[in-house]
Design brief:
alpha/beta, Rossmann fold, 47% helix, 15% strand, globular, binds nicotinamide-adenine-dinucleotide
């Protein structure tokens, strides 16, 4: 028997990278997962993976930065699968072309990053919460970042979006605790995903060299994997974490413990 047998779990950005890891892990524990993403090809692959697992993975093509899309998709999931038990607001983008000092960042890029990374978390919560309030149960897990806590150069919109997620997490936790709804966040460190592939390609670096360098800045001396984040998310969503809310948990190989993580080797 799986720890999430029959539970309905939404994962935004659920077709690739960390989101795919979360989708897979919940389905492995018997959940019925709705993976929301804009990449239909990756969506078909993650849905097919679900067929070999204890639960199910259903792909929904949805740009979660859009209000109506979130409203309609949550409505469809509730209609097709039932009420939402767990919402994983995982989606996030950090386009390589956005690595710029703030005064050079195009306003459209600011809007896009804030729209996908932060507004989507609010929108999805907005449409899932009424059902959770009625059932007086539910968990929301937001994917923030170590960059929401400390920052690096050239990431004004991304860092602001992640700081916003941490603040939104605390705010929602307070507002909905009386309904038995818990809201938490995870801060990944460097995790091996397509988001990082894009960066390596743009830097023109050798993948192996990049990985070795990246591993070194993490005190645990390795690159994180999507399953590392998924394991933490599953714990936070489970009854074992029933006295936790409004908190954020770093899953970062010790990066934040040492401070000044962007520049220093441990
Ligand atoms: N990889 C890391 O090192 C790292 C570190 C810290 C935080 N994070 C955070 O973890 C989360 C997942 O990152 P990742 O590395 O897996 O990224 P990724 O780019 O590998 O995957 C993101 C997924 O989101 C989807 N997506 C993009 N825009 C969307 C939209 N508008 N609507 C729906 N889906 C959309 C993409 O198609 C993709 O499947 C993000 O919030 C990211 O900021 C990642």
């Amino acid at each position: 028997m799986g720890a999430f047998d029959g539970k309905i779990v939404i994962v935004t950005g659920g077709a690739k990278g960390i989101g795919a890891g979360i989708s897979r892990a919940f389905a492995g524990e018997g959940a019925r997962v709705a993976a929301l993403d804009v990449d239909a090809e990756a969506g078909a692959l993650i849905a097919a993976e679900g067929e070999g697992l204890a639960g199910e993975i259903h792909y929904f093509n949805a740009d979660v930065s859009q209000d109506e899309v979130c409203r309609d998709t949550v409505g469809q999931i509730v209609g097709d699968l039932g009420g939402v038990d767990v919402l994983c607001n995982n989606v996030g983008i950090q386009p390589v072309s956005s690595y710029l000092p703030a005064h050079e960042l195009p306003v459209e890029m600011w809007d896009r990053i804030i729209g996908v990374n932060l507004k989507s978390h609010f929108l999805m919560a907005r449409y899932c919460l009424p059902g959770m309030m009625e059932r007086r149960a539910g968990v929301i897990i937001n994917t923030a970042s170590v960059q929401g806590v400390q920052s690096a150069l050239g990431v004004s919109a991304y860092a602001a979006s992640k700081g916003g997620i941490l603040s939104l997490t605390r705010q929602l936790a307070l507002e909905y605790a009386k309904y038995g709804i818990r809201v938490l966040a995870v801060n990944p460190g460097g995790i091996d995903t397509p988001l990082v592939d894009e960066l390596v390609e743009a830097l023109g670096q050798d993948r192996k060299e990049f990985e070795e360098g990246y591993a070194k800045i993490h005190p645990l001396r390795r690159y994180g994997q999507p399953v590392d984040i998924a394991n933490a998310v599953l714990f936070l969503a489970s009854d074992k974490a029933s006295f936790m809310t409004g908190e954020n948990v770093s899953v970062d190989g010790g990066l934040l413990a040492k401070g000044a993580w962007a520049d220093l080797e441990a």
